[in-house]
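Ops channel
N.P.: pipeline sanity check, posting one input/output pair.
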């Protein structure tokens, strides 16, 4: 298993993570608080030996220096080069890993955060390329078609979306709008992850800009993008739908009932941009629901694992 993410940790924290027995999904450093990791069993504190620790007093406490060193490492020792993404609360790492960053906002005259200082915590989310994660979806739907992958944060939506992009992109031209650069993990113009033999990648583009560019310039049969939700995102997806392009996207939404409550997003089903909603939980596909069945009952979902 790829453990290149270890390069961002030092000293006692590094030793503890190296010795931890488990399939790590997230590593959380909080200054003055215990080291915590998340694996398939959930979140746990960790002691200096890398063992799960149930008594906070015996856990390995992270120092401000630990956080500072990791922050500088994830920024490749050039913090100013990443100011734009730091202001959004994250830095994307080679391989598609992502470091979420918390600290004190530095706001501009308009009140928008333009930088973060006094970094207090870092959450390193470890990306995984799981070929086959979307095979159940591909078997249940007829690509190209509109697919919305729904789930809570950390449910595995990006992993499923990445693999669906690979499957579709191996068959026909698609465009991937990889705003946070964690799906394809492009480095030097070359994707680190397999996202399809006929996939064009717009890496680092804002989703609305990337979707418009894809429709106008690349003539894709499908557009893939992660974590949609804002009004500008929805407007761009509506534009793509009006041009006859199918969409595959992910959204933070745990169940059909709450999807229906998101009126503009739900409207994409009536426009034909979306035809199926896929619900993911704990890195498993919980259900594949036709748009026509939404609002009836989540019991209409086709269950299964991925």
């Amino acid at each position: 298993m790829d453990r290149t993410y270890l390069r961002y940790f030092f000293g006692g924290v590094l030793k503890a993570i190296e010795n931890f027995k488990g399939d790590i999904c997230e590593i959380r450093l909080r200054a003055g608080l215990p080291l915590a990791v998340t694996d398939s069993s959930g979140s746990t504190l960790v002691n200096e030996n890398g063992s799960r620790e149930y008594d906070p007093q015996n856990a390995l406490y992270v120092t401000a220096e630990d956080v500072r060193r990791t922050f500088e490492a994830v920024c490749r020792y050039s913090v100013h080069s990443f100011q734009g993404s730091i202001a959004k609360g994250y830095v994307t790492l080679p391989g598609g890993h992502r470091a979420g960053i918390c600290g004190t906002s530095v706001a501009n005259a308009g009140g928008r955060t333009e930088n973060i200082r006094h970094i207090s915590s870092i959450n390193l989310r470890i990306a995984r390329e799981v070929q086959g994660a979307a095979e159940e979806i591909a078997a249940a739907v007829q690509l190209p078609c509109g697919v919305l992958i729904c789930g809570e944060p950390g449910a595995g939506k990006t992993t499923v979306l990445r693999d669906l992009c690979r499957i579709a992109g191996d068959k026909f031209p698609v465009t991937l709008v990889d705003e946070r650069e964690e799906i394809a993990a492009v480095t030097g113009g070359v994707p680190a992850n397999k996202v399809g033999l006929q996939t064009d990648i717009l890496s680092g583009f804002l989703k609305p800009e990337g979707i418009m560019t894809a429709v106008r310039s690349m003539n894709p049969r499908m557009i893939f993008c992660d974590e949609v939700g804002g009004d500008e995102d929805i407007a761009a997806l509506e534009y793509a739908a009006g041009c006859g392009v199918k969409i595959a996207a992910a959204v933070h939404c745990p169940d059909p009932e709450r999807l229906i409550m998101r009126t503009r997003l739900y409207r994409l089903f009536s426009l034909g941009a979306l035809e199926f909603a896929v619900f993911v939980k704990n890195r498993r596909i919980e259900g594949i629901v036709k748009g026509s069945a939404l609002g009836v009952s989540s019991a209409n979902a086709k269950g299964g694992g991925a």
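N.P.: looks fine end to end. Residues 296-306 have pLDDT under 50 and may be disordered.
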